[in-house]
Specification:
Layout (H helix, E strand, L loop, with lengths): L3 E6 L6 H10 L4 E5 L4 H4 L10 E4 L2 E4 L1 H12 L6 H18 L9 H27 L12 H16 L8 H12 L1 H9 L6
Parallel strand pairs: 1-2
Antiparallel strand pairs: 1-3, 3-4
Helix pairs in contact: 1-3, 1-6, 1-8, 4-5, 4-6, 6-7
Length: 199
């Protein structure tokens, strides 16, 4: 088994999908969390200057979704066929396209709040409608078993529902999917023991 070291802030953020994959697959890793105040001096030492990064036996991977995709393939959570894997990737990218619209680092709080409100009020419903249609009457987003697309929906919707409780109330099947992910014993255990953070 490789030695894994994950580096990110003490947040769920862009690293949580990676932590879900480790938790579900019961893979040991170092969850190295850095403080925001220390980031300016650490940043120049990081390839491409962004986190999360995952060190795999000394090889540094960057980009959260590339890391997650690597782990998903290693652990059988990427989809059972090439076509399923493409569908999983498409769903993850669709959700991530939306999450990336939020100005997480905006310093002007009025601008930030206005943009967040606009995205949650005017853009999110279309995403939820499309995801609900894609899910249909299935238990999981792709195929007959859980994939990292289901994990990514849970990770991102947790943040969205913190920002706007009730956002998904009109989509009970999406909420049921979220519950199915959180009911998986390894994920439930991780949620219980992970550090409590807002985002």
């Amino acid at each position: 088994m490789p030695n894994y070291k994950l580096m990110y802030f003490n947040l769920r953020g862009r690293a949580e999908i990676i932590r879900y994959l480790f938790a579900y697959s019961d893979i040991k890793y170092e969850d190295h969390r850095i403080e925001q105040a220390d980031w300016p001096k650490i940043k120049p030492t990081i390839p491409f200057g962004k986190i999360p990064i995952l060190e795999v036996d000394g090889v540094t991977l960057h980009q959260s979704l590339a890391i997650a995709r690597y782990l998903a393939k290693e652990t059988g959570l990427a989809g059972q066929t090439p076509l399923e894997q493409a569908l999983v990737d498409a769903i993850v990218d669709t959700i991530d396209d939306f999450m990336s619209l939020f100005p997480w680092g905006e310093k002007n709080q009025d601008v930030k709040q206005q943009t967040f409100n606009d995205l949650l009020t005017n853009t999110a419903p279309g995403l939820l409608r499309d995801l609900d249609s894609f899910l249909g009457d299935n238990k999981w987003l792709v195929g007959k078993s859980v994939t990292w697309a289901d994990f990514y929906w849970d990770v991102c919707s947790t943040t969205l529902l913190f920002l706007k409780p009730g956002l998904a109330d009109n989509y009970p099947k999406l909420l049921a999917l979220k519950e199915s992910v959180q009911a998986l014993p390894a994920i439930a255990a991780w949620i219980q023991r992970r550090p409590k953070t807002t985002l």
